[in-house]
Design a protein that fits this description.
By secondary structure, this protein is an alpha+beta fold. The protein folds into three domains: 86 residues, no CATH class; 214 residues, no CATH class; 34 residues, no CATH class. The chain has 16 helices and seven strands. Helix 9 packs across helix 10 and helix 13 packs antiparallel against helix 14.
Length: 403
């Protein structure tokens, strides 16, 4: 179906209006995907406007392109998406938003954008792998919440815990992502810049059959590590979820059995044999300085935050809620002061005119992603341009990935 473009001139002014023929079914598809009503859409695109855009203008077959651009600022699909005559079908295979009605977190638009972006990528990646005859089948069993999260964690530690010493928590995270790649589990990071208008209100999610996505947490890699292991728990249970992952939620009585299992799995996977030390502690109180030195030592060795370890003590009844809150307040203050010091350092560099390393962090690339794209290229499934696009690299760095 050919697209119609209308040029309208008023009072001899140069181009005053440009209209295109849109596929309205695709707009309806996006509204359903994002869980938005027409009122939600109109409220968003009319924000700050004196002359309000009407529903009739939005749903006109021949739509003003300036309105279409405002709509696409929400969805970031590109104008070609709305002009494509092909009708999209709302199927369970198309999106997790058509497979599940509710999630652990009430998702904002920023979160839905991120999920949709990686769901689209997952579908594209799976097609590339299939054409390149790459086997991405699951090779770990599916567990259930009736099984001990601790026992499962100990089993998985033997398979995917890094077998070499890592210097930093980022190194540990990278190593775990590499180990998961060996098990056909694809891990992605997404990075949000400080000036993004609507940040995703999620820490991570798991998409069947084998994709885990994490928000980069540059200031707290221990939290990102915990999120990765929590989402691995969802993979092991084969239970999709999109959520904010917070170890403190472990003490929430409203937490579902699945969420509690995933939190327990993440804790025991990271704590390993050190969990026995926590188990054998006496009551933490002022008389033993709340075991601060021991907790700090364990935290450094197992890549768990101190508050995660104190939360475990609270769950085991080895610190009172009052003392737990005192410790948490102190740790929160220490973290806040640390962030303030980092900000002061950046501000001083700016005043002194010194070069700042303030560029956005580069997401960790899974070896499974790299090896699959390399094979697809060598098999002639994709070209150099598609390699750059998929790996999100400039052409100048292509030789680092393909020879």
């Amino acid at each position: 179906m050919a697209k119609k473009i209308y040029l309208c001139y008023c009072n001899n002014d140069f181009l005053s209006s440009l209209k295109v023929e849109q596929n309205i079914s695709r707009l309806n598809y996006l509204l359903s995907l994002y869980g938005m009503t027409m009122d939600d859409l109109l409220s968003t695109i009319n924000k700050g406007r004196k002359h309000l855009i009407t529903q009739n203008e939005v749903f006109s077959k021949d739509i003003d392109i300036s309105i279409l651009k405002k709509i696409d600022k929400i969805f970031d699909k590109g104008l070609h998406f709305y002009l494509d005559p092909k009708t999209l079908v709302q199927t369970a295979e198309a999106s997790i938003f058509f497979r599940k009605n509710s999630f652990g977190t009430e998702l904002n638009i920023g979160a839905r954008k991120i999920v949709t972006q990686f769901e689209d990528f997952k579908i594209s990646f799976s097609a590339i792998a299939k054409l390149a005859d790459i086997n991405l089948n699951r090779n770990l069993p599916v567990y259930n919440i009736g099984q001990s999260a601790k026992n499962v964690a100990n089993q998985l530690r033997k398979l995917i815990y890094p077998n070499h010493q890592t210097k930093t928590r980022k190194d540990f995270l990278t190593a775990i992502i590499g180990k998961l790649a060996e098990r056909n589990i694809l891990v992605f990071e997404f990075v949000e810049t400080w000036n993004k208008k609507e940040k995703a209100n999620i820490d991570g999610f798991f998409l069947c059959p084998n994709v885990i996505v994490l928000k980069r947490n540059q200031n707290a890699f221990n939290r990102e590590i915990f999120t990765l292991l929590h989402e691995l728990g969802h993979y092991l249970l084969n239970e999709e979820e999109i959520e904010q992952v917070d170890v403190l939620n472990t003490v929430n009585s409203n937490l579902s059995e699945v969420e509690r299992w995933c939190n327990d799995f993440a804790y025991y996977f990271l704590a390993g044999d050190y969990s026995a030390i926590i188990d054998n502690m006496d009551m933490a109180d002022a008389s033993n300085d709340y075991y601060h030195e021991t907790i700090e030592e364990i935290s450094q060795k197992v890549n768990l935050s101190r508050i995660a370890l104190y939360t475990r003590l609270l769950l085991q009844g080895k610190i009172s809620p009052h003392n737990y809150n005192l410790v948490k307040t102190d740790l929160d203050e220490q973290y806040h002061n640390w962030l303030q010091e980092k900000k002061k350092e950046r501000d001083l560099k700016k005043v002194d005119g010194r070069k700042q390393g303030g560029s956005s962090p580069i997401p960790i690339k899974s070896p499974l992603l790299i090896s699959t794209i390399q094979t697809a290229f060598y098999e002639g499934v994709i070209n150099e341009s598609e390699v750059c696009k998929t790996l999100n690299i400039p052409p100048t760095k292509l030789d680092k990935f393909i020879q």
